[in-house]
């Protein structure tokens, strides 16, 4: 009897669940986004400690298989760089699983064929490169695991095509991200580090958006604006894009490896705009060499940091206007109003962390927190912008039954009866 009641309750819960709802996939998407944030933070520690080239080879680590690198050798900058590689590998695995899961049962043939390729690669490499037997066996074991999984998982219906496309893009992005990180090491090219950092931010936005799209919260959002709030939507999107540009600029500054080109804040060498002539640059560098172990700076680096400060002020103003405008047009208790205000508080925190980075002489923990908060600010802006396209677009009277019913009820009666 008890079992029958339990089955009935389970059946009722399944009936109550909307079509396409997959709680396990939803939680996994959130896990992938959270792991990406951790990866961004660890990457920040790498640049803050200037440990980017502490491990000079890739994909190995000092000749060892990356996953069997002895813990006893995780010292100094190697700790940060090697941890970054391991967390990056974890995010790559999670993204691969997420992309396959979005395809549902359609992913099983892909998983099986991929497993066969891994098995063959492991077997061939074992015969040809017997000295790396452990690596080859790991490759083959991964193929066996994937082959077995391909007959049982994923066990759900495919997600919508546009969502599956986002999963494929996320997979391609995480592969490109890993390759860029490796080339940064092997090619000793600082410019690649800028692209690597920029792609990391965009990837974080993408997996966060996929996680949002999996939630019942997103699926239940109606288009409910009385009028199309195009101005507010445009302002939200513009502010988010400006934050992305600011993060790219910050990555460029970090990969200059010149410490703090401007050591004071809110002033800049005691002025609103510092001097950048040759004599002033010579004086700045003399002070830096005498007082700190920083590398010499150039006028370009000073201007770069001043532009960074100016854009920060512009972002502060724009997000503040977004929060004020949303509250004025939508009301204090509106969802977007509250989210916009939270976004504004995040920007204020980001600015304070930027100031603290200068005041503490670029302390690693503060600089990393500053970078992580910047990534969260970008994701917050991107997700709020996405929400605005659902919540601030005027509903189509032809496709909105509730509005159509309301319009019908407001029509004057003809006075005819049947």
Q: What gyration radius follows from the Cα positions, in whole Å?
A: 27 Å
Spans of at least 5 consecutive residues whose pLDDT stays below 50 are: 1-17, 397-418
Largest sheet: none
| Topology as a string of helices (H) and strands (E) | HHHHHHHHHHHHHH
What number of domains? 2
Q: How much of the sequence is in beta strands?
A: under 5%
Overall average pLDDT: 83
How many beta strands in the DSSP annotation? 0
Helix content: over 70%
Structural class: mainly alpha
User: What is the CA-CA span between the terminal residues?
Assistant: 54 Å
Which of globular, elongated, flat, extended, rod-shaped describes the shape? flat
Number of helices: 14
Account of the 3D structure:
Helix content is 70%, strand content 0%. With 418 residues, the chain is mainly α. The chain has two domains: 21-103 and 158-220, no CATH class; 223-396, no CATH class. Helix 3 (77-102) runs antiparallel to helix 6. The protein starts with a helix and ends in a 9-residue tail after the last helix. The model is unreliable at 1-17 and 397-418 (pLDDT under 50).
């Amino acid at each position: 009897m008890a079992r029958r009641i339990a089955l009935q309750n389970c059946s009722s819960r399944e009936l109550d669940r909307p079509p396409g709802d997959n709680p396990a996939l939803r939680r996994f998407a959130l896990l992938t986004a959270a792991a990406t944030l951790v990866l961004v933070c660890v990457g920040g520690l790498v640049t803050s400690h200037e440990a980017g080239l502490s491990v000079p080879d890739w994909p190995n680590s000092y000749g060892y298989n990356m996953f069997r690198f002895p813990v006893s050798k995780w010292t100094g900058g190697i700790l940060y760089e090697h941890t970054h590689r391991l967390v990056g590998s974890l995010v790559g695995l999670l993204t691969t699983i997420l992309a396959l899961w979005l395809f549902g049962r359609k992913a099983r043939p892909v998983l099986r064929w991929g497993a066969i390729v891994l098995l063959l690669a492991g077997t061939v490499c074992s015969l040809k490169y017997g000295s790396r037997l452990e690596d080859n066996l790991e490759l083959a074991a991964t193929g066996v695991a994937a082959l077995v999984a391909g007959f049982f998982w994923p066990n759900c219906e495919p997600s919508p095509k546009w969502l599956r496309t986002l999963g494929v893009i996320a997979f391609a992005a995480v592969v490109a991200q890993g390759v860029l990180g490796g080339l940064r090491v092997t090619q000793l090219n600082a410019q690649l580090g800028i692209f690597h950092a920029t792609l990391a931010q965009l990837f974080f936005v993408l997996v966060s958006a996929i996680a949002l799209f999996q939630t019942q919260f997103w699926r239940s959002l109606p288009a409910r604006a009385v009028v199309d709030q195009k101005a507010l939507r445009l302002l939200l999107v513009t502010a988010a894009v400006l934050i992305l540009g600011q993060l790219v600029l910050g990555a460029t500054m970090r990969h200059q490896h010149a410490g703090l080109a401007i050591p004071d804040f809110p002033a800049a060498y005691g002025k609103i705009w510092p001097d950048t002539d040759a004599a002033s640059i010579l004086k700045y560098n003399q002070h830096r060499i005498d007082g700190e172990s920083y590398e010499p700076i150039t006028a370009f680096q000073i201007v770069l940091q001043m532009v960074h400060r100016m854009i920060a002020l512009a972002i502060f103003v724009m997000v503040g206007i977004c929060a004020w405008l949303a509250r004025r047009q939508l009301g204090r208790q509106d969802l977007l109003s509250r989210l916009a205000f939270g976004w504004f508080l995040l920007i204020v925190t980001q600015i304070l962390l930027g100031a603290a980075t200068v005041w503490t002489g670029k302390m690693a923990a503060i600089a990393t927190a500053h970078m992580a908060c910047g990534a969260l600010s970008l994701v917050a802006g991107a997700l709020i912008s996405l929400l605005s396209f659902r919540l601030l677009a005027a509903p189509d009277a032809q496709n909105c039954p509730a509005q159509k019913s309301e319009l019908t009820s407001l029509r004057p009666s003809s006075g005819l009866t049947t």
